[in-house]
Each structure stands twice: as structure tokens, then as C-alpha cells.
Amino acid sequence: MKKKNQSSSNRYLVIGLSVLCILLMGLSIVAQFSSAPFRQVADVTVIPMQKGINQIGAWLSDLNDNFKTLKEVKSENKKLQAKVDSLMEENNNLQQERYELDRLQSLYKLDQNYGDYKKVGAHVIGKDSGNWFSTFTIDKGSSDGIKKDMNVLAGSGLVGIVTQTGPHWATVRSIIDDESNVSSMVLTTSDQCMVRGDLSLIEDGKIKFEQLENNDNEIKVGEQIVTSHISDKYLQGILVGYISEINVDANNLTRSGYITPVVDFKNLQEVLVITTTKADMVEKNDQSGN
Q1: End-to-end CA separation in angstroms for the chain
Q2: Residue 46 to residue 270: CA distance in whole angstroms
Q3: Residue 152 within a domain
Q4: Torsion over CA of 132, 137, 138 and 143, rounded to 10 degrees?
Q5: Is the pLDDT of residue 42 over 70?
Q6: Among residues 230, 246, 154, 245, which one has the least CA distance to residue 185?
Q7: CA-CA distances (angstroms) from residue 142 to 108, 119, 158, 165?
Q8: pLDDT at 239
Q9: CATH number, domain at 216?
């Protein structure tokens, strides 16, 4: 409102000065045809005043033009900012879609790696407090065929196991949780070991394994640890991680060390749930044997 009043005042001032200039121009013309004394007076008073008023009028006219230009520039800047905001939002959406596509491609690859098992995809919709997905909730439940003790996958291997279900949700305990114990084995030698969850270790990107027999089998850093065939809850052959450190225990009978897991337990958004439990598989095999 203030800018609008200022613009109107400038317009009226320019009009008034223009009228005054016209009058002074008329007096100047009259002075040219008048007697010498009158012309002298006009040269001293009217003509300098006329020039001054013309200069002021031109300055005010330029000021008014500049004000209009400023308004146009501000309007254009506003339009450009809106366009930039729109492009930034579009770019963010494209990046999110790309990240989601990468995750889905990883899940598809994981699904192919464990093609012998039927699976259901699910989104992570909740988790316990803390930085890590030690226990979390997914958006699939008993209505979708999810049952307790079903194995859960993400990344390149094992995430954990279903511990509780509702009609449209299920709770998963991951292998990094303090209460988690996974019967596992070294892929190349089939030597058995136990992988135990420890949230204090995952801060360093590792989990512990122990009870590995200290025999003649040479086991090196980088060896794959997978779920064991003797596990009562985990299906055989699911990748848990890679050995990052191995040592002989004080009793000289066993070895223990650390594993780098193949799942990012700090960022879980989608998972695959294997819809067959170990108990179901054992029962099926028993029936087939009979």
C-alpha cells in the first residue's frame, strides 16, 4: 500500500511540474517577442527556473521508471524462485525414486539368490529406540501368511527372525540384538559355530562368533559364515557375514572372532520374509520319509 501511494504521488508531481514547464515555455516564447528589459528579466529568472524544473522532472521520471523496473525485477525473481523450488522438489523426488529402485533391485537380486524359498516383501514401519534396527515392525502379518520363526532377509543375507505377529503386522528380532543366537557354519569347511548378537559391537560394524572348533581346517579372514543345517529355527545356507577376525581361545580347543554382517542394520526400509519355517520344512521332510 505504501509503495502504491508513493507511485501515485510521483505521478502527480511529474504532472504538476510538466504543467509548470509548459507555462514557463510560454513565458519564454513571449519574452522573445517582447521588449529588451522583459527579455533580460526572463533570461535571469524564468529560463533558469525552467531548466531546473525540466531537470527535476526528468529525474523524477527516471525515478518512476526505475521503480517500475524494480517491481518488474522483483516479480520476475519471485517467479524464478518458484521455478527453482519446483525443480528442487522434482529433483528430490527423482533421487528418492532412484534410491527406492536401487533397494528394490537389491531385494530382487536377493530373491534370486535364495530362489528355493518362497518369500513375501514387506516394509519396515517401526523400530525400538536407538540407532539400530535390533527389533522392528513390518507391515505384513498373519493375514499375509506370516508366522512366528519365519526368517527375514535384506541386503545380501540374514536380518533376523519373526518373533510375534498380528493380523497386519509382525515383529522381527535381528541377529544383532543382545538376545539373538544363530547356529552357523563356515561355508567352505562346514565347521559349526554360534553367532551372538551384541549391540555394543555393532557400533564398530561387527558381531561375534564363538565355539568354532580349533581343528586342522584353515579358516581365514574373509570366509563366509552362513546359517547351519543343525539350527532349529534358521533355514540352512543363508549368508550371515564375513569373518573379519579369528583367534584361538585360551582353552586351545575352540576359536572365536568377529563377523562383518552383510546387512546395513542402521538403514532398513524393505525386507523379504521367507514363508516357510524350519519346523515346517522338517515336518515336510519327515512326512516325505514316511
Answers
A1: 92
A2: 87
A3: yes
A4: 160
A5: no
A6: 230
A7: 23, 14, 21, 6
A8: 96
A9: 2.40.10.340
Mean residue pLDDT across the chain: 82
Q: Rounded CA gap, 137 and 134, in Å?
A: 10
**Beta-sheet pairing, 254-261 with 207-213:** antiparallel
Residues in the chain: 290
The Cα–Cα gap between 259 and 242 comes to 5
Amino acid at 20: L
The residue range of the domain holding 15 is 2-82
HSE of 148, CA atoms in CB hemisphere, 13 A: 4
Residue written as grid cell 532377509: 153
* Confidence label for 96 from pLDDT (cuts 50, 70 and 90): low
Whether residue 283 lies inside any domain: the answer is no
Are the C-beta atoms of residues 238 and 252 closer than 8 Å to each other?
A: no
- Alpha-carbon gap, residue 3 to 240, rounded angstroms: 70
- The number of folded domains in the chain is 2
Residues 153, 106: contact at Cβ < 8 Å? no
Considering the domain boundaries, does residue 99 fall inside one?
A: no
